Amino acid sequence: MADDDHILAFVTHHLVCDRWSVMVFMRELAQLYLAGASTLPPLPIQYPDWALWQRDQLASKTGETQLEYWKERLADQPAPLELPTRSSQNNATHQGAHHPLRFGPELSARIRELALKHEVSLFTFLLTAFKALLNRYTGSEDIVVGSEVANRDRPETAGLIGLLVNTLVLRT
Question: 135 near 143, Cβ under 8 Å?
Fold first, then answer.
């Protein structure tokens, strides 16, 4: 590596920031680098402001009503799915893994066509396929999965760096 080359390593835990925040960081870093500037415009709110707003929202009458709604909907949730595995539960390490799967251009185009034909988003189409696969492996009709949502419905949160993500429960 040449003396005038540099590498920036950016490592963070998901408890500190979400993917949206990483994109904010990268965009702002590029702006500062390309402009040669050392400041960015001030944010309308800071992360602690958002955290206090969220805490107040959860403690409000609306927050309590929403919590009761989800408690009712999930009161009789099924037991965790028993998926077939190659090793016994006694040997389970509970280590996660990432296995990227890339569809070819023809299959990707066909999936998009089917989603369009059925008037659903690509996310909904793939979620349905995933739940159908879980049903096939387990026989369960009641399947609960979580999907992360950005939780940035207020414009002031667009430039914040922090963990704002929320998990949406999707149950069939």
Answer: yes
Q: Which tens digits make up the pLDDT trace of 158-171? A: 999 999 999 999 99
Strands 144-149 and 166-171: antiparallel
For residue 47, which amino acid is it? Y
Count of beta carbons in the 10 Å neighbourhood of residue 94: 5
From residue 156, alpha-carbon distances to 47, 100, 105, 128 in Å are: 10, 34, 38, 33
Of 130, 144, 154, 170, the residue nearest 45 (C-alpha): 154
How many whole angstroms separate alpha carbon 11 and alpha carbon 67? 34
Residues 144 and 130 sit within 8 Å (Cβ to Cβ): no
Task: Measure CA of the first residue to CA of the last residue in the chain; give whole Å.
Answer: 54
Beta bridge partners of 144: 171
**What is the pTM assigned to this prediction?**
0.74
Any bridge partners for residue 170, and if so which? Answer: 145
Distance CA 72, CA 66 (A): 10
| 3-state DSSP assignment of residue 121 | coil
Cβ-contact 158, 152 below 8 angstroms: yes
